[in-house]
Amino acid sequence: MNHFDTVAAIATALGEGSIAIIRVSGSEAIPIVDKIYRGRQRLTAVDSHTFNYGHIVDPETGEAVDEVFCAVLHAPRTYTGEHVVEIQGHGGIVAVQRVLRLVLNHGARLAEPGEFTKRAFLSGRIDLSQAEAVIDVIRSKTDMAMKLAMSQVEGQLSGKIRSLRQKMVEMMAHIEVTIDYPEHDVEDVTTQHVIAEGRQVAAEIDRLLAGATTGKILREGLKTVIIGKPNVGKSSLLNALSRSNRAIVTDIPGTTRDILEEMISLRGIPLNIIDTAGIRETEDVVEKIGVERSRSAMNQADLVLFMVDASRPLEAVDQELLAAVRHYPTILIQNKLDLPRRVELQELRQLAEGMQIVETSVATGEGLEQLEAAVEELFLSGGIEGKEGTYVSNARHVALLEKGRREMLEAIQSAELGMTLDLVAVDVKNCWMSLGEVIGEAVGDDLLDQIFSQFCLGK
Ligand SMILES: Nc1nc2c(c(=O)[nH]1)N(C=O)[C@@H](CNc1ccc(C(=O)N[C@@H](CCC(=O)O)C(=O)O)cc1)CN2
Ligand SMILES: Nc1nc2c(ncn2[C@@H]2O[C@H](COP(=O)(O)OP(=O)(O)OP(=O)(O)O)[C@@H](O)[C@H]2O)c(=O)[nH]1
Ligand SMILES: [Mg+2]
């Protein structure tokens, strides 16, 4: 890939929209589009950051292909940092494709997925963690996930990383001076200084990592598993919460045979809700597999919704399950309240030992509000509301931060054990490099290609 040629792609979703945009970026963007544009002025003559009305015309036949606006944007104040022309035409698949083909026939190359953002990175307008956050914005499924990704696009994480790396540069400079001028005999002082600063850096990395779980949850959804005996109303609950009819509901116990997942936004909180097969001892082989899967789904759960049928007396299975879910954040749901009650609330309270209990009738919709409120409360009390915080949401960033943290702890340990300062400096430098990789300083081409290929075409 030549980073300096001119590339083009359709930037809007394919399909019938009212407007479609073709982006062209690179040193020749303006003259290339000018060859197929007819308007009041040549695009090569218009001011930067202007919107120009005209037509895209096939210069060979003179045929007008589309009526357009062309935004002309001179480098460097553009998305890619290069010269950009955005051709805004009528939506619809045929016209856009014809305009794109003309642009490609007049000197541009089709952009690879993510290439516009890659150019923004290569031109230094954004750093790597900001570029990756653009992917997250495109993919985020809920308001909160979107906010998190946007804050990263705006460079919050990068800012934190930069100031940590600055601190490490100062630590290394200190060490350097001490090694270069041994006659001053300040080794002890420097060692103490490095230990103190190193602890601060490690603590700050810890804080970023603590936020990482939150970031993962916001991006991928809080893994919420509905568990309970057959026929208590689990699938009905999934349908009610996701406002769909995805799960099959019947009055036959054992209806759900496999795991069903649905991404929903509950009061802005992303939940990845998982409906499971009712758990019971069973002779049916197929269902046995389902039951096994439910157990393992529960093992990975961030939240368990444990459901019992209040119209039937509790059985040994209920009690066994209750004992099993106790290790997870759980909300106990007593369902079928519209039917005569056969389970005493008192009895449940004793068994549930302080677990939140919500009473519902999924059939009538009663109690669902309370259930939503309970989930929200449990979630927010986990520290999610600190919206000011910087969240790390990307597995690559988490791995690098963990590596950096280990390296800094090694530096501290070496200093405490009285190792020579040049050895300590090696660990500090390693940490400095690991954190640098988060924002894309000194990363190889392979990694860049892998990151940017995750984008959509035209981004
Ligand atoms: N038509 C259109 N809409 C779009 C985009 C686009 O590329 N084209 N974007 C694409 O994803 C998003 C907007 N993101 C952008 C981010 C930076 C710059 C930009 O030109 N930055 C320059 C100059 C800023 C300024 O003028 O102050 C810079 O940071 O140097 C443009 C768009 C969403 N909407
Ligand atoms: N009366 C009443 N019936 C309900 C309620 N919730 C669910 N049901 C009914 O209970 C039956 C079982 O519901 P499902 O949602 O399939 O139960 P499940 O827990 O998914 O069952 P399995 O998939 O077999 O484990 C269906 O006939 C539902 O219509 C409720 O609140 N009240
Ligand atoms: Mg079911």
TrEMBL record:
UniProt-annotated binding residues for GTP: 231-236, 250-256, 275-278
Binding site for Mg(2+): 235, 256
Cell compartments where the protein resides: Cytoplasm
UniProt: (6S)-5-formyl-5,6,7,8-tetrahydrofolate binding residues: 23, 86, 125, 459
Keywords, in A-Z order: Cytoplasm, GTP-binding, Hydrolase, Magnesium, Metal-binding, Nucleotide-binding, Potassium, tRNA processing
Keyword Hydrolase: yes
Cited Gene3D superfamilies: P-loop containing nucleotide triphosphate hydrolases, Probable tRNA modification gtpase trme, domain 1, tRNA modification GTPase MnmE domain 2
Main localization of the protein described in the UniProt heading: cytoplasm
Described purpose of this protein according to its UniProt entry: Exhibits a very high intrinsic GTPase hydrolysis rate. Involved in the addition of a carboxymethylaminomethyl (cmnm) group at the wobble position (U34) of certain tRNAs, forming tRNA-cmnm(5)s(2)U34.
Quaternary structure and interacting proteins, as annotated: Homodimer. Heterotetramer of two MnmE and two MnmG subunits.
Protein's name in the database: tRNA modification GTPase MnmE
Organism: Tumebacillus lipolyticus
Gene name tied to this protein: mnmE
